[in-house]
């Protein structure tokens, strides 16, 4: 399996799924253009032992990505049905384990597992802090992140990339005005 080529990883599952598309030199890249890319994403999120990177799982995961992207970048009212359609393929079942009470995700078909988990994670983010779900402020970036900064003012997917580009653009524009 190849290495994860994405510039931003480690975000919560729902946003990490959105970040399977990114810009490289002005061209949109798509990690999920086949089952090999799905295998990379499953591994990056610790899901490789629970789910198979096959065509059905890819199809359902892409459906979840489209639904979550519509919700994050658009209107919840207009996208709720699409997210709900993904969520209809699973549920949380309370369980009692040797360690005490717990929860277990169950799916109508295991191929829906990664999609359902990402949609469920999106609901968790909305419950925790909907105003902290952000798109990178750089005009040419399509990445998303969950702002965990103390004051909630993070603007860039990565300061070292998009933040510096924006600063350099402002500096260059200011120099041209003089």
What do these coordinates show?
The strands form three sheets. This protein has a two-stranded antiparallel sheet. The protein has six helices and six strands; from the N terminus they run αββαααββαββα. With 178 residues, the protein is an alpha+beta fold. Helix content is 46%, strand content 17%. It has helices at 13-18, 35-44, 55-73, 76-87, 113-128, 159-177; strands spanning 21-24, 27-30, 90-97, 100-107, 133-135, 144-146. The protein is globular and about 65 Å long.
How would you concisely characterize the structure shown here?
The protein is an alpha+beta fold. The chain has helices spanning 13-18, 35-44, 55-73, 76-87, 113-128, 159-177; strands at residues 21-24, 27-30, 90-97, 100-107, 133-135, 144-146.
Mean pLDDT across every amino acid position: 92
State the helix count: 6
> Radius of gyration in whole Å, from Cα?
18 Å
Proportion in β-strands: 15-25%
Q: What is the makeup of the main sheet? A: 2 strands, antiparallel
Based on Cα principal axes, name the global outline. globular
Strand ordering within the main sheet: 1-2
Give the number of DSSP strands: 6
Write the topology of this structure.
Layout: H1 13-18, E1 21-24, E2 27-30, H2 35-44, H3 55-73, H4 76-87, E3 90-97, E4 100-107, H5 113-128, E5 133-135, E6 144-146, H6 159-177
Antiparallel strand pairs: 1-2, 3-4, 5-6
Notable features of this structure?
178 residues; alpha+beta; two-stranded antiparallel ribbon; two-stranded antiparallel sheet; 6 helices; 46% helix
């Amino acid at each position: 399996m190849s290495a994860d080529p994405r510039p931003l990883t480690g975000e919560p599952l729902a946003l990490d799924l959105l970040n399977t598309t990114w810009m490289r030199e002005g061209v949109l890249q798509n990690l999920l253009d086949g089952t090999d890319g799905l295998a990379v994403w499953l591994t990056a999120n610790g899901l490789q032992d629970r789910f198979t990177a096959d065509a059905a799982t890819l199809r359902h995961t892409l459906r979840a990505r489209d639904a979550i992207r519509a919700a994050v970048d658009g209107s919840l009212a207009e996208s709720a049905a699409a997210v709900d359609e993904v969520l209809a393929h699973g549920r949380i079942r309370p369980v009692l384990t040797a360690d005490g009470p717990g929860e277990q995700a169950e799916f109508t078909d295991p191929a829906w597992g990664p999609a359902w988990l990402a949609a469920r994670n999106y609901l968790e983010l909305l419950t925790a802090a909907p105003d902290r779900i952000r798109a990178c402020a750089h005009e040419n970036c399509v990445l998303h992140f969950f702002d965990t900064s103390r004051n909630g003012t993070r603007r860039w997917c990565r300061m070292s990339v998009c933040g510096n580009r924006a600063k350099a653009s402002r500096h260059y524009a200011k120099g041209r005005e003089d």
